[in-house]
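Hi U.,

Before I forget, here's the chain from the pilot set. I'm dumping it here mostly so it's searchable later in email.
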Amino acid sequence: MSLLARLAPHLPYVRRYARALTGDQTTGDHYVRVALEALAAGDRVLEASLTPRVALYHVFHAIWCTSGAQLEAPQDDDGPATDDTTRRLMRIAPRSRQAFLLTALEGFTPSEAAQILATDFQEVEQLIAEAQSEIDAELATDVLIIEDEPVIAADIEALVRELGHNVSDIVATRQEAVEAATRAAPGLVLADIQLADGSSGVDAVKDILAEHDTPVIFITAFPERLLTGERPEPTFLITKPFQPETVKAAIGQALFFHPRHRAEAA
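Structure:
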């Protein structure tokens, strides 16, 4: 199989990443092209110990770190060529931005991100935490928690407040959730699926989204009820019992990549 054929499935994604990293599609495409030319010329090789996708990103980073990264300058927030997401991404420290984008946008595990960045797992975890802290501080918002188990609701509330967000309400039924959202539009919804009176958190979220453009994270012991393939599946789905760091990361990602919050933060 030719080099191009091996890499073709991954090129749209590395272009997406390059655009987010550099803040500009033309610049990003340039460095992807340089990486491919280096591979074709034999100046760079795909590491045999890595999967093709990880190896491609690794080569891209080697090229970027020896050229493009050295030219990076602070972004002008008023520049016409950058959108809200780009401006906010470029305000994150470069190394932290790389780790965050590789895991949050591209879906690599921290271990894979470490291979791409030629570092270790511990540094990637630290970089992600630093990026997460910057994001959380910038995107503090009101959070509606839909959860019928008091102990779990209290745990989630503590995590939300630890990140600097405000808990606008904690409710246990569909009707209570809709009423809470009517009283105060939430900036983020954290929802269980099976609620106290037998009502559905999915239906509660549908009702809320009919009136409010709000990111949603489902935290449930029944993920199979949403992962059916019969309808659009949620972007953020956390299985109980959950790890606190998983919830924290999902909150940051949900707020960061949601269009309404991007516009408000610009």
